[in-house]
Amino acid sequence: MKDLLLIVPSRSREGRIDLFKQHFDKNSTISDLCIGIDNDQHERYPSFDGFVYDVNENMQLGPKLNMLSKKYCDDYKYIAFMGDDHLIQTYGWDEKLISCIDGMKYGMSYGNDLVRGEELPTAILMNSNIIKKLGYMCPPTLVHLYLDNFWLTLGQTLGTIRYCPDVIIEHMHFTTGKSEIDQTYIESNTPELYRADEAAYNQYLKVNFQNDLKKLT
User: Fold this and answer.
1) Residues 27-55 pLDDT 10s
2) CA-CA 20 to 30 A from 138: which of 52, 81, 214, 216?
């Protein structure tokens, strides 16, 4: 077993997982890979040796990420998340992101996605102690959006988040013109979902954020 587990939730994007794994295999050195897929689609996905398919009921990104990170956080020192529309472009990305938070009990780090850059960690790596202490990787009230805002705010407040601009984890989001819009994008980018997750995030900051900080200090 390696030091880091990379969790990649996926739905209706079996072709992207094929491409993602090619980049993962080429550029990873100390990571295991877990693909979180839904039980109504597992037969659609390609069967590859060397990584875990974790098949569960259909759930949104936030709940799925929390479920998988809690399941594996005792087995790995670090847990990372990327979307199935990220592509790892830097060899040894995992070692580089870990090295910049080495020695931090609650360290977090992220690379350059070529879209938001330092502004927002659309992919994240963190010490699994964070998940153990909080009981989740992102606030349970968040469905799909504002997860990266949470990670950035938490890390900046603790002073334990590091940005690594030389680690390229390219975000092939449809808004950049690097991919076509699909049903998954449509369902996760509705105005209603934006408003709901924004309200849930603001409520979390108001009610629960300070309690979470106390758990990590």
Assistant:
1) 999 999 999 999 988 888 877 777 888 99
2) 52
Helices marked H in the chain: 14-27, 61-72, 93-99, 128-134, 147-158, 183-188, 191-207, 209-215
DSSP state of 82: -
Per residue in 103-131, pLDDT (tens digit) is 999 999 999 999 999 999 999 999 999 99
- Read off the tokens for 13: 């994007």
> Superfamily for 4-215?
Spore Coat Polysaccharide Biosynthesis Protein SpsA; Chain A (3.90.550.10)
pTM of the predicted model over 0.90: yes
Token pair belonging to 146: 């504002």
Tokens of 200: 């849930």
Place of tokens 């399941």: 71
- Amino acid at residue number 5: L
- In the sheet with 124-127, reading across from the earlier edge strand, the strands are 52-56, 31-38, 4-9, 78-81, 124-127, 108-112, 161-171, 86-88
